């Protein structure tokens, strides 16, 4: 898995923290890691973006962006309003390919959901994943409403012939409600793919050394972690 694309069922659901957890766990397993943000929006030129937040939390990763735009909008809209060239899927694929030549693992983090548009022609992260032939890890929310958005995204991935290795819950609450606990059983069913982790709510606020020690416990063995879906499900069962 030299390149892993990370998308979500929406925005502000924990993609960056999940990306950091995957990176930290891979680093702990002795792998070299690069993180590529396909399109960074809502960040000023001199501010650190999501890729650098991953590096802050995870440790010594190579952080890179294809492009950034100042307004917190969909990449295509943000590029148009800024009067700048948009990000193209082929540019994302080329940047990831160059990083893959020098790293054991390249994590490509999208902006928003799978089909958020990069350009006026409708290019998306899904198109970049297709060009790369890369699997797409799906980050989902824990509670009510997640089953619909997860199934829709999983269906789109399969319609495009893209591999979905699994789903990670981006923010598992300290006191989960009934919907969240039931979703542990239902998410793999609607996604047609296993649960590969549940990152604790507030993980991004942890001190980096604490985050790095905890990260393997949030992710399942296919992501180099120790998280046990069956045991977690039994513990949280309604």
What does this structure look like?
With 238 residues, the chain is an alpha/beta fold. Helices cover 39% and strands 19% of the residues. It contains nine helices and nine strands. The strands form two sheets. Strands 4-2-6-1-7-8-9 form a seven-stranded parallel beta sheet, with helices on both faces. The radius of gyration is 17 Å and the shape is globular. The N and C termini lie far apart (35 Å). The mean pLDDT is 96.
Task: Give the tags.
about 240 residues, seven-stranded parallel β-sheet, globular, single chain, alpha/beta
Instruction: Determine the N-to-C terminus distance.
Output: 35 Å
Instruction: List low-confidence stretches.
Output: none
Radius of gyration over all CA atoms, rounded? 17 Å
SSE run: EHEEHEEHHEHEHEHEHH
Count every beta strand, where a strand is a DSSP E run of 2 or more residues: 9
Mean pLDDT: 96
Instruction: Report the oligomer.
Output: single chain
Work out the helicity level: 25-40%
Strand proportion:
15-25%
The strands making up the biggest β-sheet line up spatially as: 4-2-6-1-7-8-9
Shape: globular
Largest sheet entry: 7 strands, parallel
Structural class: alpha/beta
**Number of H/I helices:** 9
Q: How are the SSEs ordered, and which strands pair?
A:
Layout: E1 3-8, H1 15-28, E2 33-37, E3 40-41, H2 50-58, E4 62-65, E5 68-69, H3 75-82, H4 89-100, E6 105-113, H5 125-132, E7 136-140, H6 146-159, E8 167-172, H7 178-191, E9 195-200, H8 208-214, H9 229-236
Parallel strand pairs: 1-6, 1-7, 2-4, 2-6, 3-5, 7-8, 8-9
Helix pairs in contact: 1-2, 4-5, 6-7
């Amino acid at each position: 898995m030299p390149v892993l694309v990370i998308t979500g069922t929406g925005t502000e659901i924990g993609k960056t923290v999940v990306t950091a957890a995957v990176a930290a766990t891979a680093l702990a397993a002795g792998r070299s890691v690069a993180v590529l943000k396909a399109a960074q929006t809502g960040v000023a030129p001199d501010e650190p973006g999501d890729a650098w937040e991953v590096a802050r939390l995870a440790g010594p990763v190579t952080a890179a962006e294809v492009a950034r735009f100042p307004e917190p909008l969909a990449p295509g809209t943000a590029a148009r309003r800024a009067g700048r060239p948009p990000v193209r899927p082929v540019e994302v694929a080329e940047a990831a390919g160059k990083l893959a030549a020098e790293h054991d693992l390249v994590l490509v983090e999208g902006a928003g959901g799978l089909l958020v548009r990069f350009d006026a022609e409708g290019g998306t992260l899904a198109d970049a994943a297709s060009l790369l032939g890369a699997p797409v890890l799906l980050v989902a929310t824990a509670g009510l409403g997640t089953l619909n958005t997860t199934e829709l995204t999983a269906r789109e991935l399969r319609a495009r012939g893209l591999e979905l290795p699994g789903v990670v819950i981006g923010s598992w609450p300290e006191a989960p409600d009934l919907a969240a606990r039931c979703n542990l059983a239902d998410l793999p069913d609607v996604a047609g793919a296993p649960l590969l982790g549940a990152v604790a709510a507030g993980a991004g606020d942890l001190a980096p050394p604490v985050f790095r020690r905890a990260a393997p416990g949030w992710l399942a063995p296919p992501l180099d972690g120790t998280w046990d879906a069956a045991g977690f499900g039994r513990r949280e069962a309604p």
